[in-house]
Amino acid sequence: MIDRTATSDEVALSAPRGLWYRLGPIWSLISLLAIVYLVTLVNSFLGDSVQVQLQYALVNLIIVVALQIFIGTSGVLSFGHVAFVAVGAWTVGLLTIEPELKRNLLPDLFPFLFDLNAPWFVAVLIGGIVGGLLALVVSPVLMRLNGLQAGIATFALLGVVNQVLTYWSSIGPRSGQSMVGIPDVLNLQTTMLFAMAAIVAAWLFQRTKPSRLLRAAREDGIAAASSGINVVSQRIIVFAVSGIVAGVAGGLFALTNRVVQSSQLNIELTFITLAMLVLGGMLSLSGAVIGTLVFSLVDVLLVRMQNGLEIGNFIVTVPQGARAIVLGLILVGMLLFRPSGITGGREFVWPFRKDRPLPGMPPTNEA
Amino acid sequence: MSIGDNGSARGSIGSGLVVENLHVAYGGVPAVRGISLEVKAGEAVGLIGPNGAGKSSTLLAIMGAIGRTGRVLVDGRDIAGLPPEKVVRTGVALVPEGRHVFAELTVADNLRLGAVGRRDRSGYAEALEQILTMFPILRDFGHRQAGLLSGGQQQQLAIGRALMSDPDILMLDEPSLGLSPTAVDTVFEALDLIRGAGKAVLVVEQRAEFTIAFCDRTFVLHDGEITLTLKPEDAEKVDVLTKAYFG
């Protein structure tokens, strides 16, 4: 054996780590909150239509954060998170529409639902719980799957949930109709606070034991199992947590859109939010935030250009339908040339810090 | 070194690993065909043989990572049907082939993760101290990312992490693969200590001569069956054996 004397880190290695270590540099959190705040601040000077679009972008941001919590931590793809968004939206719709309106517009509801009402804030939280419960119920089956199987099974979940919401008029509108009459209570600032809360929750969750264990298993499944990590049970926890966040996002979507239809909460939203995550980098929370904001900005610009965007004396126009093509091309280019996304799966750290944390790992106070 | 305090306390009748009539097949193609072997506490047993002989499959099957038939007894208890994370808790640890360390975690975190499968939480600090004494390099590089270590250091870390689960039976899949001669010596010196501490060691290797000399018994595997059992003194005759079995 090599004869060496222990020189350093003896105490640090065996000592239990304190709160400060586990939180890590708070910079990675503050920078994200600052970005969201600044974007909202700039937008408040730009007129109503932009503000509405930003509010949708912030709701999408929460959905993408939910996706990142699960996909980024487990390395398993999910096409099913919009199902949790949908049940969250449904919950908030049912709890916030005036009872009188419900009787008229949604006549087939279970009778007890007519008088079931909650303040919108409580309704949003309940929406999160319903999303989390749905995730918990399906997870014992889904979380055993990997790779393509997991993708297909979660996609099937979305399909089933969407069909149920479309056709089961006892818990919603009759088929083909939409839920209307959701109160106008949510403004941009409140949505921003929710988005920030989602970021804080995700950031804190990155530092919990299930998240850490699952990241290790993501890196090396064999080594994780040989170390005694039960990958399935850790995944179930993480899936349920991301289901809660997605459910909250669904509730906010309902309050933002004020009309909820199952067709809005289906494949298109699934792929748009996944594209945002891929664009930013799915292994980091920063990727979820940056991806959503960049994608939304390009999206808004393209929609404007389709209608003719005035820049000084020029009017820039692109043909109708160019939006989808350009966004698709950006995504293809990204996957070809930088598959790890804009952030490369890294979190923001203090710019003058010497060591850079590796992709997919939240920075810690360890050098 | 007192790593095996627990192990030797349990080192009475029925302790160690017993494998009876183990069969493994991949999609109908047999990889392991009726292997039976025993590793007692304080004993090292080697498995050698050409590629595809079923060595790694045997270890993975004992660990519960792949489907199998046959009996696997740990300290007299049948662990058939348990998934790997439960097998760890019966006191079996595997150091997988190719030094599977968690490359993006620090050395310290790798060791902490190894302790997830511990049955006895109270011995944690003591076990860590023993491992850091055995592999001082891990103490020096405690806060370095594991992927930045050299091959030999990663292998030490992989063994250290496996020991953190406080196993009675330590299985290693080609621990010398891709290591420098000095690093191999370090690894096998550590294995000798682990064996001396009363643990059962089952090691799969390609280096026939080395393994035969180190292990108390070495089984030669061929097409999923044990074709020969060798003693350490047979290491001298290894040239003949190598020709006979590996062509």
TrEMBL record, chain A:
Keywords (A to Z) from UniProt: Cell membrane, Membrane, Transmembrane, Transmembrane helix
Short name of one Pfam family: BPD_transp_2
GO MF terms, alphabetically ordered: branched-chain amino acid transmembrane transporter activity
Membrane topology term: Multi-pass membrane protein
Regions crossing the membrane: 26-46, 52-71, 78-97, 117-138, 150-168, 188-205, 236-255, 275-302, 314-337
Organism the protein comes from: freshwater metagenome
Annotated protein name in UniProt: Unannotated protein
Subcellular location: Cell membrane
Major place of residence: membrane
InterPro entries in alphabetical order: ABC_transp_permease (IPR001851), LivM-like (IPR043428)
One GO cellular component, as annotated: plasma membrane
From TrEMBL, chain B:
Segments forming domain ABC transporter: 17-247
Region forming the signal peptide: none
UniProt keyword annotations, A-Z: Amino-acid transport, ATP-binding, Nucleotide-binding, Transport
UniProt-recorded Gene Ontology molecular function terms: ATP binding; ATP hydrolysis activity; branched-chain amino acid transmembrane transporter activity
Similarity field: Belongs to the ABC transporter superfamily.
PANTHER family: HIGH-AFFINITY BRANCHED-CHAIN AMINO ACID TRANSPORT ATP-BINDING PROTEIN LIVF (PTHR43820:SF4)
Protein name: Unannotated protein
